[in-house]
Specification:
This protein has 240 residues and is mainly β. It has one domain. It contains no helices and 20 strands.
């Protein structure tokens, strides 16, 4: 029988004489994406070869405020805040047989002259956690003179081996009854905030995951709704 030389750090020979990889040396084997807002479960018993997991958690972005100006007036709204991001690496023995996953939903945009809602936080096992992006404000009244609206802070930092807060939503500026600029939404680690606008219209939609909505802009009467924030996402990378 021919002999085989192999490094024992990575290979072993089974009783049947087969050359096999040692557990924990196979690298990334599968990636799970949890995109639907709500709760889900991860069961490690479904993956008997599992050695460790890397969890990446993105919170949802905030919704922007609505704008309903009076005749011969305008209202630009600031953008909403982006959601936070956290990640951690676990050995298989460090996680339970069943772990809970929460995916945050993007904050709803405000109607009329109401603020937007905060985005929902996302988490894995209650250990890797994130905060959703704050909703956009709706404090500025209709008018025709120069005025500014403050930027909206991004989400606070959650918990994890790496934890990052969300990006701030940009402030808004009115120059006159018909001129102004609404704020761009805050970015997230896995998404981009919605666009700001210089013409009347609803809040701009974010792209990717966790971005804040761009601010609405209303001129001369029509009500414009705020935009919805980007939903969150949880990614579980499985290593054998």
């Amino acid at each position: 029988m021919a002999s085989v030389c192999a490094c024992g750090d990575y290979f072993n020979v089974s009783p049947e004489g087969e050359l096999c990889l040692n557990p924990g040396t196979m690298g990334l084997r599968e990636t799970l994406y949890f995109r639907t807002p709500g709760t889900a479960q991860f069961r490690k018993g479904d993956y008997p070869w599992l050695a460790r997991i890397r969890v990446r958690v993105q919170a949802a972005g905030g919704g922007s405020g609505g704008a309903d100006s009076s005749a011969n007036g305008s209202i630009p709204r600031p953008g909403a805040g982006g959601g936070g991001y956290s990640e951690s690496l676990f050995k298989v023995g460090e996680i339970g047989a069943v772990e809970s996953i929460v995916v945050g939903e993007g904050g709803a945009g405000g109607a009329g002259n109401n603020p937007g809602d905060d985005g929902g936080g996302s988490s894995f096992a209650g250990v890797v956690t994130t905060f959703g992006g704050p909703g956009g404000s709706a404090n500025t009244a209709s008018g025709d003179t120069n005025v500014t609206a403050n930027a909206i802070l991004g989400a606070a930092t959650g918990t994890g081996q790496l934890a990052i807060g969300g990006g701030a939503g940009e402030g808004a500026l009115r120059i006159s009854a018909s001129q102004g600029l609404s704020g761009r939404g805050g970015d997230s680690h896995l998404g981009f905030g919605g666009y700001g606008r210089s013409t009347t219209g609803p809040g701009g939609a974010p792209r990717g995951y966790g971005g804040g909505a761009g601010g609405a802009f209303s001129y001369d009467g029509p009500a414009e709704s705020g935009g919805k924030g980007g939903n969150g996402l949880v990614i579980v990378e499985l290593y054998g």
